[in-house]
Amino acid sequence: MPMVGSKLKRIFKKKAKPRRVKTDDGDLEAEMPKASVKKIEKVLGYTFKNKNLLVKSLTHPSFLLRSSDQINNNQRLEFLGDAVIQLALTEALYGKFPEAREGELTKLRSGYARGDYMAQIARKLKLHQYLLLKDRDRDAGIGKKDSALGDAFESVIGAVYLDSDWETARAVILQLYNDLKESPVEKGVIANPKGVLQEMIQPEFGNKAVRYETTAQEGNPHERVFEVTVYCNDKKLGVGKGRNKKEAAEAAATKGIAKLKKRK
């Protein structure tokens, strides 16, 4: 018994690993080397006054596993950044195409705001190298997925907006989008794939031939992946995956378009 008691004492005397206390502002700066912060600021063309905002914008939800810490991942900044990007694109497209109608402008904005398009910009910025991830998630390639990179890009823009103002955030966005000199189609992104697929199928099979079905969903709540299959009547045309059903359906439509084009 004495041996057991002394062993228990030694176990309980072991100091628990200190857990960083993170405020709502995100006391995360210690998680990222200053050299990395400077590199990101250089490619962004913006220097942060509050470095913690930048680090927080690159904190993947899986990095902070405790539910009480989830407020400090990048999802809130992603929510904000999405709105800031949408407004910047809307204003820029409105001015750039004075003769374009609402529908055309909406299609263009949709292409620029798609997750895979923003993921391309994130890769140019090499954000995948700086995402804060658990080692197992990094090894699994989570940081290289379009969903994680698109979210990171939106989060970084949200951080820029909070750290500066609307004019500065808009300038950063348009610089990263190269002032919209390249269209989404030129970058391999179809602005409205569901509409394009409908137009391809409608003349031969009618308006109601295209059908989308959610066939699977997987992953944790913070990294949910949906699978959608598109059919022409009962014939499968393509399967797509995305961080939400809309994105998965658009990916499926893109696969369907490619399949139909090959047949021509």
- Number of continuous helical runs: 11
Mean pLDDT: 84
* Number of extended strands: 3
CATH class of the largest domain: Mainly Alpha
Total discrete domains: 2
- The CATH architecture assignment of the largest domain turns out to be Orthogonal Bundle
Walk me through what this model shows:
- The protein starts with a helix and ends with a helix.
- A hairpin with a 6-residue loop joins strand 1 (210-218) and strand 2 (225-232).
- Helix 4 (75-96) crosses helix 5 (102-112), helix 4 (75-96) packs across helix 8 and helix 6 crosses helix 8 (146-163).
- Residues 1-26 have low confidence and may be disordered.
- It is mainly alpha-helical.
- It folds into two domains: 29-180, Ribonuclease iii, N-terminal Endonuclease Domain, Chain A (Orthogonal Bundle), CATH 1.10.1520.10; 193-263, 2-Layer Sandwich (Double Stranded RNA Binding Domain), CATH 3.30.160.20.
- The longest helix has 22 residues, at 75-96.
- The chain has a three-stranded antiparallel beta sheet with strand order 1-2-3.
- It has eleven helices and three strands, in the order ααααααααααβββα.
List the helices and strands and how they pair.
Layout: H1 2-13, H2 34-44, H3 51-57, H4 75-96, H5 102-112, H6 115-124, H7 135-139, H8 146-163, H9 166-176, H10 193-205, E1 210-218, E2 225-232, E3 235-242, H11 245-263
Antiparallel strand pairs: 1-2, 2-3
Helix pairs in contact: 3-8, 4-5, 4-8, 4-9, 6-8, 8-9, 10-11
